Structure formats: structure tokens, C-alpha cells
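**Folding the chain**
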Amino acid sequence: MFVEEGFRIRFANGEVIDFYADSSKDKEGWMKVLDLCIGKDTVSKSWCDLVFKREEVLKKRTVG
């Protein structure tokens, strides 16, 4: 991955997910959301749910 605002998550099972942000501010937002859930108790919070909520917030900002 050679994208300045990109980052990669590599899981213990070998799965890799690449993320790309439009700006350093967007990337910082991603990092904050992921920090809230990765390596934490996943029973009470799904990291996917947090990512989807973050995307909803960003979408609302661009639409309205």
C-alpha cells in the first residue's frame, strides 16, 4: 500500500483490510474510531458498527 492517507489492519487469522481516507483529517477520524474498539471487548461493541456509524456521520456532513 503506497497511499499517504491509507492504512492497513492485519488480523490474527491472516485477513487484511486496507483503508483509504480522502484527507489526513478523515484518516485521523478513522484512527479514533478504530482505537475505540480494536483490542477491546468486542462483545459489547462491534468494531464494524463503530465504522458504519462513523461513515454515516461523514455522509451526513457532506450531504447536509
User: Anything to note?
Assistant: The helical segments are 24-37, 47-63. The chain is about 50% helix and 15% strand. Residues 29 and 54 are 8 Å apart (CA to CA). The beta strands are 6-10, 16-20.
